[in-house]
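Input for the complex:
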Amino acid sequence: MSFQHQHAAHCESGVISNLLRHHGVPMTESLAFGLSSALSFAYIPFVKISGLPLIAYRMPPKSIIKGLMGPLAARFRFETFRSAAAGQQRLDGLLAAGKVVGLQTSVYWLPYFPPDMRFHFNAHNLLVYGKSGDEYLISDPVFEEPVRCASADLARARFAKGVLAPKGLLYFPEAIGRQDVTPAAVRKAILKTCRTMLAPVPIAGVRGMRLLANKVAKLPPADAHTTAFIGHIVRMQEEIGTGGAGFRFIYAAFLQEAATLAQMPQLSAFSDRLTAIGDTWRAFALKAARMVKGREPVDPVAIASKLRDLAALEEAFFRDLKAALP
Amino acid sequence: MDIDAVPQEGNATLGGHRKAMYARDAEGRIVIAPSRGWEAEEIVTSHAVDTLQAQAADALAQVRAGTASPLAYWMYACRMDVALLSQTSGFWQWRVRRHLRPAHFARLSASQLARYAEALGKTVDEIRQVPAA
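Predicted:
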């Protein structure tokens, strides 16, 4: 099998770009991320993960895959299953037919993850490109090298229950209409991201950051829950959803590619500016982590004020980006 | 972030793996650079792991003192809480809470125990007891 694995910062954009490259489309992870308008911010207090609210720095699962269908005139097939047996049978059949298949899984039940990263997070994505004996050959883009997983473990990970239960979801392309990316598609994708970030709803975009800031500012400094909450904001930023490097940097990489691809040289300066905003997020994470560790007194008001600064930076950024598009 | 600023501090929670990060190289191009992880990440991840382990240790002490059922220990040991165990086992949350008490747990039928065992990825025999001291 001639499948080429490539290391990526985020599971879904990594999976889809590896899968598209396998089918001959020159797609980088950052281009997939930007073209599907995946950058976002959302604070969703009514969805709880281990008792803490969902804080997302990107669009919901599956939106990257779905967001690329328009620009590439592609059709994907998505299938879910009632039973693990049916799901495994279908996967084996597709592999026998030579297909590379995308899967949604839980992270907790994948034994190749390091123990400290195995949390009950159900929206992980990976590619299966073969089977050897009882083991599946897996390209998990957040790992440097391909990995293997026993069939019983993979079945459990695919049929994990709870929030965002994958229900055995598998997907693969049925048709890809075009191999190149048009300047019009790039422009449309950037405008969509600007709209998301500046959306007139309280929980999304820069308003979501401000709502979160207001919530954090009210937390009692001495409470253990406050420390857990502050740590949670950073974990959602850096680790959960295997976001890793930070989505602001991935989007900055996309803007740099888009400057050439869509002949919009003005985007280069925006790429630099977003990189600087990404660095500000990292400074925020470091300060928050120091409080969690007890090296600095826990200060919810200071955290809230940093979040408001970030909201102001991003609001100005996306307003200017929108205005700079032809 | 510039490529020489990509953290290589060796985040222990990554278990020796490297993660991909985006950073600017000397020519100003943004490229993927593997990172051994950084301090901030390690702190918040180990804090979350420690919280879960402390819950499991508390539950274990309560099981030994006879005030909690073995299910309470296994729930936390498998990094779950009542809400998640309810979703994965199909029992209502109030029933899960009841089964965390020794007397109610002792009255569970074989099929009910099997549902919990399945949800936790353990055998029925395993979830009926806790690790020896």
